[in-house]
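Predict structure. Chain length: 392.
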Amino acid sequence: MNSIKRVGVIGGGQLAWMMADAAKALDIELIVQTPQATDPAAAIASETILAPIDDAAATALLAKKSDVITFENEFINLEALMPLQSQGICFRPRLEVLAPLLDKYHQRCYLKDIGLPVPKFVAVEGEAVTGKMPVLQEDFSQEFPVVLKARRHGYDGQGTFILKDRQSLEATLEKMGETPVLLEEFVPFSKELAVIAARSVDGEIVTYPVVETQQEDQVCRRVLVPADIDGAVQLQVEAIAHTLLNSLQAIGLFGIELFLTPNGKILVNEIAPRTHNSGHFTIDASYTSQFEMHLRSVSGLPLGNRALKCDAAVMVNLLGYEHSHSDYQEKRQKLAEIPNCHVLWYGKTESRPGRKLGHVTILLNHSERSTLTTQQQLQQLAKQVESIWYGS
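Prediction complete.
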């Protein structure tokens, strides 16, 4: 019998909100710490503690009401939580697992230390951050473009800049002010890949099918399932996931983003120690969603079935393209009319450009004969969704 019945979640955005169905199926109560009563997960939590994500005193209260605490995002104050863990409060993943991952520079160093392939990188701090050109290590490619990333709190392309020349690099460094940043080589990839992997309390690991993610302005627009890659690449990505999760001794679910280069080389781009946008397809396309897999993992249950229920699928993010207060009922209705299309609306009341308002997943079965390849069919379905969503 599973003795964990109450899971505390730090963060109340749509990732926590999407845990609701899985929690219900597993007979688990979710208690959520989030700043505002209007945050998506407040609507589904059995109890909500209204406080900032990094408020450790609020987390101490959350701990009193929970059997285990997990995370919806990385905007936590690790140092402030450490005393709680030493008092016996159970965090999954443990805080030591998160420690090397929250800062993008520390994450790069950790991945390199455990032998995983990463782009060349260098930290920019001290005098360099105030706008002087950083002195780069000799092995760092000084050819432009280069990628500049804020080391903490960047997501959905925020805090990430692809810079074409020295002048724009210096201007961006100046604009970033005192913010510590990471500078890395630009990888001219042939595909961006991602894999969702979970590790149980007993050390069992499952990986979902490797997917291709397609970004625009560093924000994920669509996910093609499975990725069109050969078996050797698939095995390499799975091996990376196993190495990472075992090295960390992690409990929970992780999103791993990767680059596939034109010569077939894999480089790890970023690790998210939580459920991830690249895994949203699992809600409708897999036997066990990433949200159920995560809850199973952190509550000590056996992991679920990661297999697809269909032959292929495409997930398209519905991103805000204007400033408005609208639930886009008419567009959502049109999307729902596409065969095998599942629309998930996040219930946000305010739209702004780039904000994730919902997503759709369309399932594909090969019994529907077509002269197009699977990838062409998935791309075509994505275009159909985007013409409805972004069309006038």
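Summary: The CA atoms of residues 19 and 39 lie 14 Å apart.
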